Amino acid sequence: MPEHISLFCQTKSFVLCHQYVIGCEAISEAIELYHESLESDRRRKQHRVKEEVPVSIVRMDAAGKEQTPFSATTLDMSLGGIRIQTQEELLPDLKVYFVFNDEFSVPNWSGLGEVRWTRKVVENDVFESGMAIVDNVSCHAIGQHFGIPGFPQ
After folding, report:
1. Which CATH number fits domain 49-146: 2.30.29.170, 2.40.10.220, 3.30.1490.100, 1.10.3720.10?
2. pTM confidence score
3. What is the pLDDT of residues 66-91, one digit of tens each?
4. Are 77 and 142 in contact (CB under 8 A)?
């Protein structure tokens, strides 16, 4: 390994390093799948992945105190946020704490979010809400869940 480092990693020949090439290819593929897609939707910063997963949501009051948790289901996720469906209406700018169960790929993953929008789905008598992720640990957990290179297990 020290020879490899001196021959490739610490020289201008690093682009010939097999590990560097593999890593660049994996990162390029991940960027194509999960990064901004200008052609499909100019409003989005990251690609959304549709996935229905049970999650518990806990509202935070103005003092930061947790209220009673309730059940929700994710509809899609990205590195920047989660769209959820609930029986409860969540108001924009509300801070929430979310918790996935131990069957999720990142067991018992929890994080902080902020509700950006909510709309009532009349035909199903439910609410859909867009929640921005506001902590880096949760962004990392989504990266792990999706298997994106650079987000190791």
Report:
1. 2.40.10.220
2. 0.67
3. 788 889 999 988 888 899 999 989 99
4. yes
